Amino acid sequence: MTKSVQTRIENEIKSMKRGSILFPSNFDDLGNVEVVKKSLLRLENKKFLVRLAHGIYLYPKQDKLLGILYPTIQEIALAIAERDKARIIPTGTTALNKLGLSTQIPMNVVFLTDGTPRSIIVGKRTVKFKRTSPKNLAVKGKITSLVIQALKEIGKDNVTAVQLEKIKIHLEKEKQEIIKNDAKLAPVWISKIMKNN
After folding, report:
1. Other beta carbons within 10 Å of 196
2. Cβ–Cβ contacts within 10 Å for residue 52, how many?
3. What confidence tens digit (pLDDT) does each residue in 39-97 have?
4. Residue 149 half-sphere exposure, CB side, CA atoms within 13 Å?
């Protein structure tokens, strides 16, 4: 029984793109949870899959020089959010980093979510999902959501002219109606910065 489930899981994974992030729940229709978990464990032992974290696997993409190409923390977080049908937005240092306002790569990455709050350890890093109010997730733009979170991290009295210039350049790539909409959801001081771009 387990053997055939394992073979079916393996065949299903082979039809996926290399670099895909997988969860036991991807194979709910092939067998009960325990059988699926055991099958994934066997496939990991066979080096067919790589375990990224508890219950999170990678169908690895190989590079001749670099070996296995691992997904970014952001890609793993997005895969988890997709599985949980939750929305997420990066906060703090991650938002600063994505906007080029900081070169610091955070060891602990925090995302705001309307899904289940939890922490997941991936290698030496931690991904934390923090439950937040729907208002924080109502932001429509990818750039505006990063700008709001980055500015909250910097703080009202610490924003430099250089940072404002960089933010302005980013906001020019966002549609005006999105900026208008999202500015209403931001704290007043951030809203002013967004409208003045």
Report:
1. 10
2. 19
3. 999 999 999 999 999 999 999 999 999 999 999 988 999 999 999 999 999 998 889 99
4. 26
Task: Decide: 86 and 127 in contact? Cβ < 8 Å.
Answer: no
Q: Which two tokens stand for residue 63?
A: 């590079």
Query: How far is it, in rounded angstroms, from Cα 49 to Cα 57?
Result: 6
Predicted local confidence at residue 53, as pLDDT: 93
pLDDT digit string (tens) for 91-122? Answer: 988 899 999 998 887 888 999 999 999 999 99
The structure tokens listed for 87 are 């929305």
Give the domains, in start order, of the chain with CATH numbers.
2-67 (1.10.10), 73-195 (no CATH)
Q: CA-CA distance, 180 to 157, in Å (whole number)?
A: 23
> Per residue in 123-162, is it b (16+ CB within 10 Å) or e — as a string?
eeebbbbeebeeebbebebebbbbbbbbbbbbeeeebeee
Contact 77, 88 (CB under 8 A): yes
- Length of the chain counted residue by residue: 197
pLDDT value at residue 3: 63
